[in-house]
Each structure stands twice: as structure tokens, then as C-alpha cells.
Amino acid sequence: MTDAFAVNEFYHAKGWTDGLPIVPPTEERVSECLDAAGFAPGDIIGIEQVRQRPIIAEKAAINAVLAGCLPAYMPVVVAVLDAMCDAQYNLHGTSASTGGAAPFIVVNGPVRTLIGMNATHNVLGNGNRANATIGRAIRLVLINVLGVIPGEMDRSTLGHPGKFTFCIAEDEEDSPWTPLAQEREIPEGQSAVTVMAAGAPRQIMNEWTADPEQILETFAAEMRHNMLTYSVWAGNYVLVIPKQLRDLLVAAGWQKRDIREYIFRSARVIRSDWAKIGKANIVDRSGGPMQEFTALKEPSDLLIVAAGGPAGGFGAVIPPWLGSKARAVTKPIDL
Amino acid sequence: MTIRVLDPSFEESISTVVTPKRLKSLTGSSIGLLDNGKPNSREFFDHIEQILRSEYAVANVLRFEKPDSSRPAPADMIAAVSRCDAVISGVGD
Questions:
Q1: A140:B8 CB<8 A
Q2: pTM of the predicted model, to two decimals?
Q3: Of A22, A74, A215, A334, which is least packed with CB atoms within 10 Å of its CB?
Q4: pLDDT at A188 over 90
């Protein structure tokens, strides 16, 4: 290739991008990425179980460079791919489904500060290279290595913007709560990723109370709404709780465990609720109008992440792709 | 100046795949119908079964329904399906 512009045009012509420009994956840069993660080119990071297709380290590194990753991000990319190859993640089903889910990634531990990840302002949006390019690297591996191409294996009806990138860090420094990874059996001081196939974030706001139950009721209402308008099946939900609402919950003495218990009790619907939202045809099915559904099978299904800018009584509910057919998976990052 | 770059896509290690021989006729054959279990797939396959029996003189139609539409069929189901002369796999929604 004559220059980076020619490389970009060539990769677009080959269908090797997500539609955005790419960084030329030179041998030197790919080699730096492999070294940073301690992999040889031919090492296998994981195997997609349905097509039995291996994710080779060199291919992952090439896609990480394409995405704009620095070599130091590579251990995170590897851990995410490792998590997605766990059977619980249901990689093939979640990638091929009309439901249009994206891998939602939460990073915990020292690696966040080491590579400068963002956990505060605009955390679910743009602005940070590590957040943006780690998530994008995963998408490019899906496209280029696993063939998750829209209209081919990716049968998403709509998809959502998180399919470009959907990766955040938890704000461990500014939260007294136990970080997500440690709640999921990762030792303190160990970096880790948690990944789940997720729908788009549903933003809530409640700036009119300091009462923890009322604050959480707004989150629970959004979950109920997702159950009614999208999918009723119980599974992993994520709550992203920024500082303003977090401080009120903390001041009232609420830990993540208390929040999970409250949401488990409150995020429920009954079949007759569907009559109000255009789904009256299914009210009388199965268990009848009073049949109850819970958003969570058990309180531990709720993943709570302290993240977001300091001002504003906002929060986000990130729903699962399809109940518990795919589960959140947590894996350590080998630095 | 030139830039040397690498291929990001999966490269198959097996270059040829052998497909099974097509049946010369459906008459007297056993045909498996593998249903992914989604809404309306049963009705769709009921229709296919009726056509196979009435218009193509298929001897046996064996019906299989996946327990989970988003995961592969279980091994014992795949084994049973592979004993048919031919299989139609389909999805409903």
C-alpha cells in the first residue's frame, strides 16, 4: 500500500471495518500488541463454540490496531474475548439474533487508571480513547474473525449505537461500594472485565427526592418498562449509577446488596400490565392476567456500576439481550 | 514509501468442504424437519410436512424441535436428525 489513505480505502472495499476509518495494522504495531498481552501470534484466545471458529491472538491484535487501540489496551481486549467465548455468554446466539445486542463491557481494577479509562463525565458516550477503541476492537473481531456482518450472520433488525463500542470503567475511586468485579469473585487489586450481551442504555432521571427507595423506584420503573415493551424474561440487568444519585444512596447507608434486594422486589410486572402498552393479546395466555414476572431471577442478577459525571440525577438501565439465555461473564485481566 | 499491512479476517485452514449427495427422488424417503422452536415455526413445518407427504410421496417425516432457539440442537437430537435421508432446517418468528 502506498499510504494510510490507500490502506483505509482497501479495508473499506474488503468490508473489514465497521464503517469508520481504520488505523493501518502494520506488522510492528500488531507485534507490539501481542507482546503487551504476552501472546504468540498463533495462540488461541478462545473458540466460538457453534461454528468452532478459533480467535487467534494475531487476528485479535490486528483488529485491535485497526480499531485504534494502544498496545497497553490489548490485555483488556483479550480478557473480553475470553469472557465472550464462555458458554454462558452465548456468543453465537447473541451475535446473530434479530434482537441486535452489543457486548457491554465494564472494566474494574488497576488497569483502568493504567490505560486512562473514563468512569465519569459522559461515561456511556464518546471522548476516551481506551473506552472507545477497546469496545471497537471487539466489534471488529466479531466482524472480521467471526463473520458477524450485518445482513449475513448479524441478523439484527435495528441494532443500537453500542454496536460501535460499549465499554466503560467503574468509578472505584469515588465510590465506597464494592466494585463489580469483586462482587463477582475477583480478588481486590486484580483487574477484570465483565461482559454481557445488552440492549441500548435506557436513561432515567430523578432529581426530586433524597429518599433511596424513591430513587430506586425510578430505576425499577424503567426495568418494568423494558419488561413490558421489549422482553419480559428475567436475566442480568445493569444499573449505572452516577455520583449525584449514588451520594444520596450512600448517605442513606445503602450498599449494592441493599439496592439489589430492593430492585428484586420492585422490578416486577403482571401479565395484565401488557394491556396498557398495546399487547392486550397476550394478557390471557399461560398463567393468566395475574401471572407475575420478575426482572431478576435472583437479586445477584443485578449488576450495579458506579460511573458517570458528578452532576445530574441521572442513571441508566442496561437490559439483557433476552433474559437469561445469555449471562454476564467476568474474567480476570492478565497484565 | 510503502506500508505493509496484515489481513484482519479469519482464514480457513480447511480449503474444501464436501457436501452430501442430493437425493434423486423424495419418494419413499425419510425427511427430518428441524424446527428452531420460535413462534409459528410449528405451523410452517406442518404445512411443509403436508406438502412432502401429499405431493412428494415421502414415507416418513420426522419432526424435531430445538429446546432453545438461540443455541445449537443437543447432540442426541443432531444424531437422530442425521439418520434421516435429508433434513430441512428452518426458523420461525
A1: yes
A2: 0.94
A3: A334
A4: yes
